[in-house]
Amino acid sequence: MAVMLPSVLFVTSEMAPWVKTGGLGDVAAALPASLHQAGVDIRVLIPCYPALRAAFPDACTVAELPSLAPALPSARLLAARSDGLPLLLLDCPALFERPGNPYLDASGADHPDNALRFGLLSRVAARLGQRGSPLGWQPDVVHVNDWQSALAPAYLHYEGGAPSVITVHNIAFQGCFGHDMLAALGLPEQAWRFDGVEYYNQLSFLKAGLQFATRLSTVSPTYASEIQTEHFGYGLAPLLRYRAAALRGILNGIDTTSWNPATDAALHQPYSIETLADKALNKLALQDRMGLPVVGDRPLFGVISRLTHQKGLDLLLAVADGLPALPAQLVVLGSGDKDMEAGFLALAQRHPTHVAVRIGFDETLAHRIEAGADSFLMPSRFEPCGLNQMYSLRYGTPPVVRATGGLADTVVDCDSPLADDHGNGFWIDGDSPHALWSSLERVSHIWRDSSRWAQIQRNAMREDFSWKQPAKEYIALYREATTSAELQ
Ligand code: ADP
Ligand code: GLC
Q1: What is the Cα–Cα distance from 177 to 105, expressed in whole angstroms?
Q2: Is the dihedral of CA 386, 388, 392, 394 positive or negative?
């Protein structure tokens, strides 16, 4: 007898290719698509930002939503489809149609009304998971992601409704606001407790989700353990330890269609494990495009990143003046902290023949760097999963990583006794600039041994990071959530 798959409302604040500030955008596009393909009745709820309105001009209204809390405006739901995947666009121009990215205004400051914007997203998500859903469709599970939709499990707890799952993509972002938002967002005063939504005298969206979701997950097994420790838990470790029995670590997959070096239209010369030598042509093209000397006698390191403390790129800035002497070249694409942006631009000015830097967000260049670099740098202080190291592995560009979170779960150091000839990259031994520098020296040395390097590249390219396996694990988690809710 065929077993019914649970139906799912997947709630997200970003979704590639339309709205993406980081890995959540990629995951929110690929995971629901993969679940849909596996036969799950899944709908993705996302704010109707200008990019989505432009992408789906024919989206039609499927529900009118009255104001659902004292400070929340009325809104509408529009239905659209992306390659068959049903989308629900939360249409509320006053909150979502404005310049900037989903979280920040054009000047880089938080939108001042983020509590209302994502309060609305959470409130609507919960409403769809409740009896009398205005869609006439009620999911078996409401799956929320990060703090922006994490208030939904609290509404479902206090008002009743479907079981919920929360996935933590980054525990450092928690969505904390003043007490006045409690009533404004329609939560009961009784929720203001240590085992409610209160967190150090603030309303914390993320804590609410972790407290009340039926099941919790995060994006790698190692991060699932790490966030239960004080160092990585950003204040939420005690709650996560309390909820450990409900917490899972499910490693992200990657979109193996758009990230495929054999068919990638952005590349100067597509290549595969059988035509690995062609990868070198992409290096030459990248050097040329970035204004670096076109030479093949030194390794080229690549970085594509948000420039923030999390990513540890200040460690790179601290040692990068040594690159010309190594010798090695460096290409950096990123944006974020203004100090770090300025630091990298100044580095490139000091060493124009060895370092090239582009500040900004550029999807095409990201693909070209993955293909053109010899090795990819991710010295992250913490990394819940990390997607770029998986793109790098697939592109035969062995990554250099701190062994934390998903980096530890995907990269095998080629010098580790445990690697047993399966090494696919490099672990940085410590969190100091010195440790990073030692790794760069080690990589440059091994790079010069071309047959050993090619072996590491082949090991990397053989890894399978498709969404097939993670999608199965999410389905199992949805089942757990529905069964445990029935038992209550
Ligand atoms: P995070 O979500 O913490 O930023 P991930 O590695 O999970 O880290 O995902 C980052 C995603 O964003 C990757 O797809 C990466 O290629 C992309 N990305 C980050 N910065 C840039 C940039 N400046 N230009 C293009 N893509 C970028
Ligand atoms: C977050 C994390 C990153 C992860 C991504 C997708 O932005 O920082 O490590 O890969 O979410 O889950």
Answers
A1: 18
A2: positive
Ligand 2 close to Cβ of residue 123 (< 6 A): no
Q: Are 292 and 331 in contact (CB under 8 A)?
A: yes
Backbone angles phi, psi at 135, to 5 degrees: -90, -15
In this structure, the residue with its CA closest to atom 7 of ligand 2 is: 23
Which ligand is nearest to the Cα of residue 305, counting in written order?
A: 1
- Tokens coding 166: 């929360």
b/e sequence 69-91, b meaning 16+ C-beta within 10 Å: bebbeebbbbbbebeebbbbbbb
What pLDDT shows up at residue 418? 79
CATH of domain 8-253+468-487: 3.40.50.2000
Cα dist from 344 to 347, 355, 427, whole Å? 5, 9, 23
Q: Tokens in use for 306?
A: 């948000």
Give yes or no for residue 170 CB within 6 A of ligand 2.
yes
Axis crossing angle, helix 205-212 with helix 152-159, rounded to the nearest 10: 50
Q: Which atom of ligand 1 is nearest to the CA of 389?
A: 6
CA distance 367 to 343: 24
Q: In sequence order, what are the beta bridge partners of 198?
A: 203
Look up residue 78 and give its two tokens: 């529009």
CA distances from 270 to 129, 281, 367, 473, 480 (A): 45, 9, 11, 32, 42
Residue 217, strand partner residues: 167, 248
- Look at strands 164-168 and 141-145 and give their pairing: parallel
pLDDT tens column, 234-257 = 999 999 999 999 999 999 999 999
Question: Judging by DSSP bridges, how do beta strands 42-47 and 8-11 pair with one another?
Answer: parallel
Rounded to an integer, what distance in angstroms lies between the CA atom of residue 312 and that of residue 432? 10
273-461 matches 8-253+468-487 in CATH topology:
yes
Say if strands 198-199 and 202-204 run parallel, antiparallel, or are unpaired. antiparallel
The CATH code of the domain at 273-461 is 3.40.50.2000
**What pLDDT does 417 receive?**
81
Res 486: pLDDT = 65
CB 392 within 8 A of CB 399: yes
The residue ranges of every structural domain in the chain are 8-253+468-487, 273-461
| 9 CA → ligand 1 middle, Å | 25
pLDDT in tens, 183-205: 999 999 999 999 999 999 999 99
| Ligand 1: residue whose CA is nearest its atom 15 | 388
- For residue 470, the 8-state DSSP code is H
